[in-house]
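User: Quick one: structure for sequence A, then sequence B.

Assistant: Sequence A:
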Amino acid sequence: MLSEEKKQKKKIDIMEKCFEQFCETGLRDTGIKDLAKACGMTAPNFYSYFDNLDQLIIESTEYCMIKIENELLEMAPKTKEDIQPFIDKILVPSRDFHSKEYRFMYQVFMSPAFLEHGKKFRARQFQRYRKYAEELEPTLGVPWDMTIVWILSLEQALIQYALFENSTMYVLQKISLEKMAQSMLSEKGPKHPAAKDL
């Protein structure tokens, strides 16, 4: 019998391999046999780690998308001087390395079967972004609620470019992010009256 630590490690390995398989073949065309083959295990063994296939889909998607999010946050600006280089370097790698992952995430969380889970995932994601924006506030001298608008705009630019690879949209969004950052750093205005309630 596996220890809890080894079981959790195995579960993470299963989630990563299943997520990779889902990203390759899509939600509709991926069966339990495909997942078992990808993981090198029999189908019944999945139920030692997950109650059902839906739980596997949800937890795999959340775990792997948070992993990507954490990679991006590690690269994210920590000072004013970091902002422009970050914008310059982040959009193309996001398209090249994460387009399949973003497509699958949308396929899952926009599905009626998983929409409520998607809403909860998004709410938790917003809190992570808020924490990052609050940590930047002393360094940038910009209220967190202004910074988070820029973060959400950046996120949409990353996702849209990864999903559709539209170079015209990419250029326009890049210019918009640059202008927004310049305005944000120059204004440093007061917090929005409702920000405390978010």
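Sequence B:
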Amino acid sequence: MMMMMMMMMMMMMMMMMMMMMMIMMMMMMMINLCRIFLSMMSIVALLHIIIVYFQLYSISTGNIFPLEYYENDDDDDDDDDDDDDDDDDDDDDDDYDDDDDDDDYDDDDDDDDDDDDDDDDDDDDDDDDDDDDDLFCNGKLLSAYFIY
């Protein structure tokens, strides 16, 4: 009888030890799972930061992809117009001599100013087209808004 009780006690202790080991293993697995989960969450957080960056970039520039904005900026139509205006200004400077009196100043400059105004009107039309391109991203929708 005593032997049976001892065997029962030993079996119970072994079962308790096995249960404790299983609980410890489960806890270790849970810790590993938590670590994996946290690392995955950090990756997701980084992705969210990148997505928010692109959304803010697309709002500020009207374009989704940063490189595409600079590639489209190579048209330089506005720069050519600015160069033409600079040339007109140089012509005005040639007409006016600092050594001479103010009476020698040519009155033809008024006509040049009218030409500059016409050029400015053309520039405004070109700027409107560029604004449309920036607004619609050259015909593409801003898909960054549809991510969420």
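The chain has a mean pLDDT of 65. The chain is about 75% helix and 0% strand.

User: Thanks, that's what I needed.
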